[in-house]
Amino acid sequence: MKNMQRSAALAFLPLALVSLAAAQRPGDRQNITGINPAYSIEQIRPSAMNWPEGGMDWMSDGRLVVASWKDPYEVFIISNAIAGATPKTATVTKFATGLAEVLGLKVVNDSIYVLEKDQLTLLLDLDADGKADEYRAIAYDWTKSINEKEYAVGLAFDGTWFYGIYGDPTIGSGTAIDPQPAGRQNGTLRIRKSDGQLEVYTAGMRVPGGIDMAFGNVWATETQGGYRVSHALYIPKAGRFYGRPVNPPVMFQPAAASTPRSNPSPYSSPDQMAGIATPFSVNIPFKNTSKAGAGPLGLMRSPGNPVGLATGPYAGQLLIPECDKEPNGEMVRVFVEKTPDGEWQGAAFHFTSNTVFEGKAVFNMKLGPDGHVYAGGNGASGAGWGRMTNVGLDRMKLTGVTPFDILAVRSMSSTTFEVQFTKPLAASLGANVTQHLTMQKWWDKISDDYGCCRAGFGSVSVTSATVQTDRSKVLITVPSLTLHWIYYLRWADAIKSEQSETLWGTEAWYTLNAFGPATSVSLQKDVRAGAGAEGPYAVHRDAAGMRVQVFFGRGVPYTARIADMRGRTVASHSGLGAEEFMFTRGQLPQGMHILEIRSGNETYSKLGLP
Amino acid sequence: MIRMTFSVLALTMALASNQAMAQVARPSTYWFGKVMTTERSRQLYVGLNANMWVLYDLPQGVLYQAWKGGANGGSLKSASPSVSPGYWFNGDPHFPHLYVPAGTDYFRDKVGEFFASYTKPADINTYYTKWPKQPTDYKNWSVANGATEVAAQMRYRGYVVKGTALTLNYSLILADKSEITVSESPEYSEAGGKTSLVRTFDFSGIPTGHQVRMAHPGGAAAAWSVTSGTATLTSGVMTQTSNGQTVLTGSW
Lengths: 610, 252
Description:
The complex is a heterodimer of chains A (610) and B (252).
Chain A: H1 2-11, H2 13-19, E1 25-26, E2 29-30, E3 39-43, E4 53-58, E5 64-68, E6 73-78, E7 92-99, E8 105-108, E9 111-116, E10 119-124, E11 134-139, E12 152-157, E13 161-166, E14 170-171, E15 175-176, E16 187-192, E17 198-200, E18 202-203, E19 208-214, E20 217-222, E21 231-234, E22 240-241, H3 270-274, E23 282-284, E24 307-308, E25 318-320, E26 330-338, E27 344-353, E28 362-367, E29 373-377, E30 393-398, E31 406-411, E32 416-421, E33 437-444, E34 454-460, E35 464-467, E36 473-477, E37 485-491, E38 507-512, E39 537-542, E40 545-551, E41 557-564, E42 569-576, E43 578-584, E44 593-599, E45 602-608
Chain B: H1 2-15, H2 18-21, E1 32-35, E2 43-49, E3 52-57, E4 62-78, E5 97-108, H3 121-127, E6 141-145, E7 148-150, E8 152-162, E9 165-174, E10 179-189, E11 196-204, E12 210-214, E13 224-228, E14 232-234, E15 237-240, E16 244-251
Antiparallel strand pairs in B: 1-2, 2-3, 3-4, 4-5, 6-7, 6-12, 8-9, 9-10, 10-11, 11-16, 12-15, 13-16, 14-15
């Protein structure tokens, strides 16, 4: 049966090759070979940081706390010169040692939390000598066997809860051990900071990639493999099952999600699959199609920790690093939009080659106190988490250049997509660019067959592609779109900007789970990233003032204030739960100021620019 | 015997001072650390002396192995069931490994494996149809009111390292949410010419009329004696009836 499906998919291949037979170059059915022109990359690693990075975050004074992914697992503090003009002169001081495979680190109000494979630990320097004295166990209520995998990756913090993602025990070809260690939950666990209370949050995870807060949401990535044709990006939601079954079934694993032993290929259609397993927000294509089957090559081999961009031409979007060393890997850019039913979906794009980073692979990215993106090296060739050897620390700075690129793909209806470019299209292209667009589609039919397979692969007939009035957007119409399919769009090199630039990346992979148009939300934070804890909020500025979205739980009280640089309150607001409010232009000081949000015992402060 | 007891008491007094504890030389730069053993994760080794390495199971709060070891107290082998031992030693920084104590055991006990609190009991039985079975219904710490055992949830709270002194912290949470706290500081002693492990316990929060019991001091009961404090030791079970410090010493 499987062979028949694969043969059917391959039957479309000649057609696809014909339609895609035009120019091929980096960014066009080949992986990017350089740095996206919007950024420069500076290698900043102090020589004493001679180990792969397993987690990092910032202290309020600009020091960088980094966990080493090396036995013995340790935590180091890099002096605040790391964010300055001479970063390689920063000192590296050991803070804690003897930990258990740390792949998550979060600084909250200058307290250092690490997610060990077996425990969430608060590291305390009781005598202020610069070294941790107390290794306080905050939570450990999860099963952890002695298997090699069972990774625990984190940490995202939403102001109340820490979130970690936990892989299942896997051996050999990628099948989960059967029976798995009793009580091992493959999914997201969250831990309340105030008392260490642990909640099982989601189920159905394979190998975790990374997790972090961006734009007020927790975003997680997973790696291609068993029950994963592509890499996955999604917002873990309470009680959801994300498709990777184990035996005995874990909490939230529905009976219909057959275990590999009983039925290794339980899904017959995308709708049936979506009725059992929550669809991913974005399927990020695996770098090759040897197992996936027909269709275009993908982007990366192993995703790491997502980071939300606050500024630059891609503000409001996510970057996902490639933590595999393979030369064709890419750091991927992702556009997301909120669907009318409250879920998220979006598209993946080419961004930057992995080879430009010192370690040739990046696990974590964090916004620094200066607003730049800091990337920690970790990764190896084709070895997953087991043998990550690459060392590096890089700083990505905006250059001020806006490359000609596909900025976004949006679902507009059951027959239309809108594509937005970073710059207006050349006038010479006219209003009809249909002949320059190729579209294909398939659905990721997940099963226990490792990395297999794209199903239903075929071309999409484009009715029209019409340039809109401002010439930066194109409305694409097709006869019909189908939910839970992946739509691949590729523009020919004939598509040029007004300055005759060719596209940095010609391709987009859109995961369609609901028809648009999307719910309007602000994803752009233009308050510079302050040091220390991220808060459960997002900020947007426009001519009217500062619009603040807060994401506290229902009924949770909070207060917000604007203070001047002497700490004096100039405007305030109080409210409950998740909502949006405005500090008007008239309420804001002329110079730099501070936004401070308080809820319970937590305070989040960000330095704002006028 | 009297001389030995005096020496142990003197050591106990010294242990009460963090300053004194910080002066003790340890057998390795990495003298403590989390490890997986061949049976369980969440283990902490502590190298007190080349003659005294110990292993704690942290969730159970039990010291279950002590041995005379080499420079690092043990060897490592791959934690991957599908890979032969040694595979991960090819210069790679990360090699998930199993810690295998090497040397001569003073004792090594069987310990129950920790499973998440939401684990279905039937799943544990299923798991042990394939994986090496560990003792079930294992409990090291318990609380009694008079002669009746009462509900008490054991919580491992982490450890504190001051210089070269390490103290483990536990809580026993009672039904009314009150907590009995227990801390333990292990130390090596050669007092009286005997190789000894000195375990200094501090108890607080014990309600009037209640007893805290530790069922497994480690190895043969005959090796242990209460050398300071008010605890009693009967058939290997240490019972503490009031707040304060107790020192338990084992010699081999």
